[in-house]
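Quality-control log, excerpt.
Job 1 of 2 completed; input and output follow.
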Amino acid sequence: MLTLDESGKTLIFSPSEEASGGLVNTLPRVTRTTEKQDFARLLGGKLWTAARGESSSHGGHKIPIKRVFDPFNPASTGRSLIPTEHVGAVTPGTILSSHPGHVYLGHEEGFILICSLEESDYPRYIKVVKVSLSDVLCLEGVNDRLWAGGRNGMIAAYDMQCKRWVVRNCRTAHPGLPVVRLVVDYLGVQKGRLCVVSVGRDEAVRFWDGLLGLDWIDKELLKAENEYSTFRDVTAPTISRNRDSTRPDALTSSSDPSTQTFLSDALNSVESPDIIAFGFQEVIDLESRKMTAKNVLLGSKKKEDMGLSEKVEIVFFHGDMNYRIEARRDAIIAAVRAGDYASLIPHDQLVRELKYNRAFRLRGFSEDPLTFAPTYKYDPRSNEYDTSEKHRSPAWCDRFGGRGFRDGCDRCIIGGTKRMCRIIDLSLLLLGLR
């Protein structure tokens, strides 16, 4: 048994062969650890501590320092563990029975730090994973899943077998109020159930199926889907029109022949399409903060709604995303004229966000390789990039991406490089009831 006080004084009670009555008649061994610790937990035979007052500067951010002690080794002085990436203050910590060699530490701002207990006497930093926009306040390992409770009242169960963690279950446990505690009732297994208990700031206690029985049923059904389902390929052209801030009614009222025939050209670019998705511009008030793609697709922090993209299996996004190429204008144009698009891709803002920003909400989406010239910004009715006084740099502002479909996509250019459509071959599931 270990006890700590604010001064860092730690008492270690260990049973001895001479003492009888357990720990009652045992004199504790005294050692020193972190002062005014906000987090202290015994994980993997080591004492992990952290204090908000202790931090290290890295990349302009303050990163909390974790100190790890071996309380069972009197000669141990403890070691510091400093991640190389930004994380918030340490909140909970846990170990999974299926991954006994790893320690998972939750942090504010939605980060989880993973450390290895193998290969050395002290833990080794592995990586940081961004799992939520809300603070992670409690963690528990349940079988091979990591359960996390957030400040927003949500509970999520993560499957870590994939490189990118998969949310197997997500529930609003305590609406609008923090989840302060998660407890696993392991003794319930003897009665045929594994229960996870959540305690919220609303003083409510709720019980959850730790085995995620419904998720298991879905997996079993998926194994047998060929027995009750058939598939056929469908073709879905997704079309984006973005030209000089013109409204959709210009498609019929414009005197420009290419504009008048754009719809016909785009719709006839694919033979017998099954699904057509068309992205217009300037349809809504661009000054309205409520009518934004972020709110519609990703939901709001204040609402229980998880966002449209979390509710459907197949999601496409396309249109004027306004991402730019972070390079000089003359260098971009020279690369385009040489057909060297590959040299520009590492400088594209969307490519960087998808690759490096762990908190990016579209990180689960994929995009085809950029093998065509930047679509922005041309002089009207020409193939020359902006020659106005603004001299805007070329960029891939018009983008196509998606999630949940198998690759098999072609891209075609209609009427020059100002408007584009993407042809996507999907596999459509047809349910057959027996």
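Job 2 of 2 completed; input and output follow.
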Amino acid sequence: MREDVVDALKKCAVALQYGNPRLANAEMGRVLDLAEKEFMPRTRRLIGYFAQALACRAYGPHPKYFSFPSPDWKNSMCSRHGLFGCVSRAIADVVKGKPKRKVHVIELVNHMDIHEQWTTILCFLPDCRDLTNLRLSFLVQENVEFSKESEKRLIEIANNGGIELEYKIIPVNSFTDIDVSLLEMRDGEFVVVNCMFVFSKMLSEALALEKVLLTVRDVIKADIMIVAEHDANHSQSDFLLRFDESLKYYSSLNLEDPFYPDFLKLEAYYRYQICNIVACEGSNRVERHQTWAQWKSLLTHYGFSIDNLSAERAFSGNDWLMNWENGILVSRSTEREKQPLFFIYAWKTSTSPFKSSGSNEG
């Protein structure tokens, strides 16, 4: 995104923040004029998304920009960046050479097609000879059902890899109120809790994330917890700082990739995120992405430590970089700097003492 466009967007945001509607309208007009002159379609659309978000902040939300995109956005994003392969790697690592060869994966499901997700993950697992039984428990906050065809496909992929598969869908009103008895915990199973892009959405509700983490640690007693999140600084209360960080982050994402068929699904979700981050405040702002350093500090505080993953799945291609530091950090090189984008790490219960903070970020 060109500097003159960024300058106009920032001046419009500043005018809104300090209650100067005339200046905001003037700068918005400049933004739209510059957008028309932008040669790259993806950049032109991105400018439009930030302009729409600022308009929604000024005049109220528009349903067109605040409706949640199709549930398969997460599959598109995770497949695009190889994150599902990392989940498979983590599961393979925890059972390798260990007496526990039965794995129970408890998935916190939030707006996604879990059939497509686990079809992809299972395709990476057949080379894991130490895994004999895999049980999947899906904790879902909405109606999610497998078709008979989907069931057959999942079982077929698992059986081809020599894995006996069973799964269960468990509806929950909230991840903070999990009835653990429904998980039917069994002796001799290695318990993995999989959390793909769900924790950041809990930061808008006081104590929500703390309750979930303590349940995972003290009640479910997971052997490992896999966490994938955006690596960004979008959780701060200062609107202007948040707006500046979001400009850097989404300008670094390649919103148009002709070689990737699902880029439109991803773009629809990023559009939703931009509107939520820029236009919303309070509990309505649910896209509260934090940096890897912030997440590391928070999870360490709640009694977790990093469980090292092997680097067999690491790769870098084009301008996407995947760096391993006992887990995976996805970033993109820009003309000026390396922009962090996502991370995925496995966590285990730490032996360090823990005290509840009694608070969460609002």
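Post-run check on job 2. The chain is about 40% helix and 20% strand.
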